[in-house]
Amino acid sequence: MKTPTLPPTTTLLRDARTWLLQGRLPITTAIALLLATLFANLVVADNFLTAFNIRSIFANVIPLAAVAVGQTVIVLGRGIDLSIGVIATLSSVVTVSVVEPWGLPAALLAGLATGAACGLVNGLLVAIVRLQPIVATFATSFVWAGLALYVLPPGTAAAPRMPDVIVLGYRDTLLGIPNAAWLLLLIGLSWLVLKRTRLLRHVYAVGGDEQAAFATGVRVARVQVLTYVIGGAYAAIGSFAMLANSGSADALAGGGLTLASIAALVIGGTRLSGGAGGAGGTIIGVLVLQLLTSLLVALRPPTDVRQLIDGLLVILALALAGLWSGRRRGR
Amino acid sequence: MNLATLRDRAQLAEPRDLLRNPVVLSLLVLLALFAAGNLVAPGFASYGSFVNTLRIAAFLGVIAAGQTIVILGGGEGIDLSVGKIATFSTVVVAQVSQGEDERLLVAIAAAFAYCGLIGLANGIGVAYLRIPPLVMTLGMVGVVTGIIRVYSGGQPEGRAPAVLSQVVNGTALGGVRGSVWIWLVVAVCTIWLLRRTTFGRRVYALGANREAAFLSGINVQRNLVLLYVASSLYAALGGIMLLGFAGAASINLADQYQLISIAAVVIGGTTLAGGIGGYLGTAVGAVVLQTMRNLLIVLDIPAAGRQVVNGVILIVLLSLYGRQRRLRQ
Amino acid sequence: MAFLEMRGVDKRYGGVVALDDASLSAERGEVHGLLGANGSGKSTLNKILTGVVAPDRASIEVDGADTRIDRPQDAHHRGISAVFQELSLVPDLSVTANIVLAFESTRLGFVQRRRDRERAAALLERFAPAFHGNTLPLQAPVGSLSPGEQQIVEIAKAIAREPDILVLDEATASLYSAQVEVVSAVVRELRAAGALVLFTSHRLGEIYDLCDRATVLRNGAVAGAVELAETTEAELVELMVGSVTAPAQEVVEGRGAASLEAARDVPRLEVEGLTTDRLQDISCRVAAGEVLGLGGLAGQGQSALLNALFGAVRIRGGSVTIDGQPALPRRPKQAVDHGIALVPGNRGREGLFPVRPILENLTVPSMRGRARFGVLSDAAERAAAVRAGEQLQIKYGSLDDGVMTLSGGNQQKVVVGKWLLTDPRVVLLDDPTKGIDVRAKAELYEVITALTEQGVAVLLNSSDDDELLALSHRVLVFFEGRVVSELSGNELTRDRLVADSLQVAAT
User: Is any Cβ of chain A less than 8 angstroms from the Cβ of C93?
Assistant: First the structure.
């Protein structure tokens, strides 16, 4: 029997499809957006390339970057955490409250444990009690917010502060590069390490097809719980950056990080329904959001219009990114 | 265990099946909440208190109706912009009417038109540009915030026309306020819309299996747009009612309904995956949530504790019937 | 004591009994057939063995030891792996990642990608003949492969776990014959190595080819365990369904193709030069009352043509006319308006609204015609659904029951029935009898006959060559998106069909 061979066009088509399905298009879009916003900033803002400006951009970016990377891990596993910003808040008030009596390392450890514990509760509710992630984490966000208010009631006269080493060091530079930029690099590296683990492979599998992963022997519930724990831990890291950036904690801050983290990961090309994307894109997404803000500052539009322009720019970025990550199949 | 006993068990299981009905379950929860409240504060479960709860729950109930329709339509459908759209609606009505009765109708028409346009944009983004709904409506929150700022200069002027306040707050039959009557009409219409119209059937079909809906000759994209337009119109109506209640607009009057409207839908037994559920459950869910809030006020605990209790009760409510299917059947 | 003993297995889904005291006993070094009509409980039994479904009651012994299987992991630890009808692959993960999923080579929790790649490559080597000697791209996401290739990956994945017991549940359904042969060879290898293979297939030929013994299930209970060498096909079918003769045969006997010759001058459906991404220059004419078969290897453009005629994919060129009127649809809605109906190939994914009641499943495509200003009358909707149910002999309890409470065959009838209510002029059937039992098949054949008697033009794609030959007046053979031959009259033979499908000269 003659064996039919595949014509070259079919292979080409398949290669193209492979390329798209492997998720390169979303990340390409994200990089294009980053370059575009960067370019716009260079053109519009005279002081964009000053050391001070670059330092403060990186300093402002770290809290969201850490939180968004955490959110990315959760979303990859087909979850979502609407409490992640509040976890960062809770973690920051815990850290700052114990930094004086216990010392810095213990305080950081306490903050990290707080974030991971909150993540654990979220994970158990979603994976074991099987609540729908959106509503479950919306509910827990009240709990974390209440606990944060309890630990550090707002308007406390002598609010505890972080040691000056941290606050000053955060804005300092090492080898001519801002420390915050190093931190961002560390966050990125931590993702690269995480991504090579068996756990993350299973996170992708669960996000891609939960039932298939289950039938293959992946411990779906455990994997999902762990994504929330990791997400909570990253939120804690974000909270340390919040503390270092402002010196003190506020029990009402951090809530805005949740929705921004979702925006960042979508711009970065992570699919909201899980299984495709990655934190590399998310970090780009965070930078895009930050550069849009600084662009707006530089443009100095009338204050009334500023919010509208900001909203339109963000929705434009989301739309461009969502155009690709949203379509899973042809139609 | 042999088959006969299994069959017997199936016979006995009928009352339990009733308990699985989310609407019945949320009604039971409601009773429990009132009973608990009455223990703490006698009079909590009185008729007057109940009617008063309904009066406030009406705003959530109306806004959550749109949310129900969007969620029923499936495809990860969700509308995070309902709260902000409702706020916008209060601002529009207040500014256009300038508190004068004769301009009320124009103001209401303007609110529906503007909000409808925002819903249209949401729908086009979701249906034609294929932006995930969560992202599209989230982004829209930022845009509407900006629009409100531009439209009002950051300081909304005007107030609710007297007629509006009278309609919303006035008492009719049995001490029941106007807002409750409006809600009742909205509820009946919504349930009818979902159960007895081709639009309703299409909503369920889209939610149950979008691919099959497309292959059954349903214009998926146009109907998706309609979902989001409907949602924004309900939000606009909720905002108008809220303005009548509050008297004056502010730049964040109805923002709180963004996520709580989703909670009402889920507590009412509509699944976020789409295709299953209905408005009756959402309506009960709205009353449950409002009763819970009242209970927390009656309990008179400090803000921190109130938040925690709020969250815990929400989790308990959700775990009663917001649970997803097991992987292993 | 056999190597695998399953006894007293009960499972109910709600009120439906799936398994009633079922049992199974099989030895190492055996290929054991698990047979039964649809809804007989084969898949449920397989899934209980592999931990995907929790039984109400079961005793399982492997190698003489009592075995509890509460989760898929437990099954894997006992050396049981499975290939199911619905794939358990993750589309976004690469071929390698899928094959080693949950079995990755790791060091300190990190995946050792190169070792995994080597393992996967070695494994796929065995299947190389199925890809004309090419190897699969190990790095490509599984979602980019064709259905047949995905099925092979799925099988490779199951074998990668070096199972003592391998469950193949309709694992060959989407493969064409060359690929089936490769899989058969691998199965025989496993048998020689002392593994037990549980094999389920609707194609009796494969059962006889591969299996030594078979257990037959009927309505969730064991109807018999037989030595295949001593059992005829008719006996086997009788065990499966009571007593029914092969349905396709009956239909062909009652049909005179000659009567159509006259009608063919006035085509109901005429397609000229239809071209899409997957189709090249397709032309055909179908007369009223004619069944035009679409044949060839799986996935050569048959489904693509049906989808194109229904407006479900973008059309690049060509024309379509129905009764002389232009009817090139750009969306399914337009196709429906032109009187075209499509019974799609995957009823679960494309045909049903699984969480909705039978009533809505039956009435949605046709409800617009009964509505007044978008308002529906409950009585009219129910009457329409009852009419469709009677026409197709759908067995249901109440119209308000969920459609998934029906058996597979009845579900498929619902998908057909919803289109009968639109009074179609052209009906497109995409493998309508795939995976449904013999009796339901026979009833669907009757419906097709009834449709042609009403003057409907039918286009039929079928993966079952015998069915295609029996039902069609003519058959177009597809190869890589083109029609390579048209068979009619005495050319309508199995030999010609297979030869043209493979693009080889008939022997």
Answer: yes
CA-CA distance, B19 to C270, in Å (whole number)?
A: 57
Contact C288, C455 (CB under 8 A): yes
Q: Kindly report the backbone phi and psi dihedral angles of residue C417, in degrees, each rounded to the nearest multiple of 5, phi listed first.
A: -60, -35
Backbone angles phi, psi at C193, to 5 degrees: -80, 5
First to last CA, chain B: 20
Mean pLDDT across chain A: 83
| Number of domains present in the structure of chain B | 1
Q: What angle do CA A298, A301, A306 make, to 5 degrees?
A: 100
pLDDT confidence band for B323 (50 / 70 / 90): low
Q: Chain B within 8 Å of C365 (Cβ-Cβ)?
A: yes
User: Going by C-beta distance under 8 Å and a sequence separation of 6 or more, which residues neighbour residue C174?
Assistant: C147, C148, C151, C298, C463
Beta-carbon separation of A143 and B146 below 8 A: no
Each residue of C17-66: pLDDT tens digit?
A: 788 888 888 888 899 998 876 567 888 888 888 888 888 888 888 888 88
Paired tokens of B165? 């306040």
Domain assignment of residue B196, given as a range: 55-328
- Is the Cβ–Cβ distance between A157 and A100 less than 8 Å? no
Using a CB-CB cut-off of 8 Å, the residues of chain A touching C143 are: 21
DSSP string, B35-48: HHHHHHSTTTTSHH
Quote the CA–CA distance of A235 and C234 in Å, as a whole number.
66
Cα atoms found within 13 Å of the Cα of residue C430, Cβ hemisphere only:
24
Using pLDDT thresholds of 50, 70 and 90, give the confidence band for residue C504: low
Q: Which of B214, B215, B223 to mutate to test the interface with C (most CBs of C within 10 A)?
A: B215
At residue C17, the pLDDT reads 75
- Contact of C89 with chain A, judged by CB distance below 8 Å, is answered with yes
Model confidence band, residue B195 (pLDDT cutoffs 50, 70, 90): very high
In a domain, residue B16? The reply is no
CATH number of the domain residue B155 falls in? 1.10.3470
Q: At C223, which helix (H) or strand (E)? A: strand C221-227
Chains near B with 3+ CB pairs less than 8 A apart are A, C
Q: For chain A, say whether C88 makes contact (Cβ under 8 Å).
A: yes
The enclosing H or E element of C22 equals strand C16-26
DSSP C377: P
pLDDT, one tens digit per residue, over B160-184 is: 888 888 888 888 776 778 889 999 9
Chain C residues in contact with A17 (beta carbon < 8 A): 144
Tell me the per-residue pLDDT of C321-368, one tens digit each, with 9 for 90 and over.
998 888 889 889 999 999 999 998 888 788 899 889 999 999 999 998
Nearest CA in chain C to A219: C73
State both tokens at C107: 């060091």
Answer yes or no: is B37 within a domain: no
| SS3 category, C79 | coil
Please check whether residue B315 touches A, CB under 8 A. Answer: yes
Of the candidates B262, B319, B325, the beta carbon closest to that of A134 is on: B262
> How many Å separate Cα C327 from the centre of its chain?
30
Has residue B96 been placed in a domain? yes
Domain assignment present for B2: no
pLDDT digits (tens, 9 = 90+) for C395-444: 888 888 888 888 778 888 999 999 999 999 999 999 888 767 777 888 88
Asked if the Cβ–Cβ distance from C82 to A215 is below 8 Å, we say: yes
Chain C's closest residue to B206, CA to CA, is C353
Which residues of chain C are within 8 Å of residue B211 when distances are taken between CB atoms?
349-350
Contacts of A89 in chain B (CB under 8 A): none
CA distance A135 to A120: 16
pLDDT band at A224 (very low <50, low <70, confident <90, very high): very high
Helix (H) or strand (E) holding B308: helix B303-321
Domains of chain A: residue spans and CATH: 33-328 (1.10.3470)
